Amino acid sequence: MTATRSRRRRYIAPLIALGAVLLAAHSSRSDEPDPSALAPPLSSAAPSVSDELPQVQVTAAEPRYVAPTRRDRIGRIWAPVLINDQGPFRLVLDTGASHSGVIARVAEALRIPLDQSPPVILRGVTGSAEVPTIRVDSLTVGDLTLRPVILPIVTDALGGAEGVLGTEGLDDKRIYIDFRHDLIRITRSHGERAAGDFVTIPVLRSKLGLLMFKASVGGVPVKAIFDTGGQATIGNLAMRNAMRRHERGLAQPERVIGVTTDEQTGESYATPPIEFGSVRIEGARVTYGEMRIFGHWNLTEEPVLLIGMDAIGMLDTVIIDYRRHELQIRMRSG
Fold first, then answer.
1. 4-330: CATH number
2. Residue extents of the structural domains in the chain
3. How confident is the model over 105-152, as pLDDT tens digits?
């Protein structure tokens, strides 16, 4: 993480937040089959998703902390977070964010002015912007406690959430996400191995905290990033070029809106199966575009896929064990 200083302002490491990545909403037909369930495994075959998910925008708060992906709504993972022992505030868990942030309403609830801490550069998928910050004494969720913390003020466009919970402090933690039972737990990892009904995916954590692993799409090797903060699954232009021979149907134009509210355009295509480990996702769509974040990450030369909540939210249970450097995934049955 880098920092740039000037005489009058101090810029701390940028927040790389994918939590507010939205696609412009498309209408969905009421007679479409519900694709929110993954088919049970047949012998050793992995479950698959056979129906296409419409790209929809989360616009309203929900009373749950863990919402699965359904035909008419992309799921979310919200963490109940105490800030200065107040709250809990509901923050979007974002494995693509290097730092946490909150909306201005949280600062108001905490009675912290926005002009007492230096601004920062907020960097999102589609652009960057200078934003104010607040300094808090503590941020606590489960076994994770950070003291003190500088929190950037992010736009209030997070589908009812009150901010973003990034990856700082998670090096020795285990995150348990149960979509079926609306449950999230953040605990200290004790190196637990996956249960017998889970699939284990080894991951490499990059210098920016990204969870990266090998995957393939229609037989094309790709570098995949597990992105709980993004609604959509997004590919870079290198992946788009590699997938040209696998195009299915006509492209749909998309507007991608980042956490800074900057917009970029992309094209969405139905895609061949996305496979990693024994997990196989069929019938998905990938939006391709020259998103600015790929350049910041230096991920423009090889095919890269950000797997978003349109796919992640169709699972039954996801465990992210940062100490073991692995994902432990249980598929949704029936």
1. 2.40.70.10
2. 4-330
3. 999 999 999 988 999 988 877 778 899 999 999 999 999 999 999 999
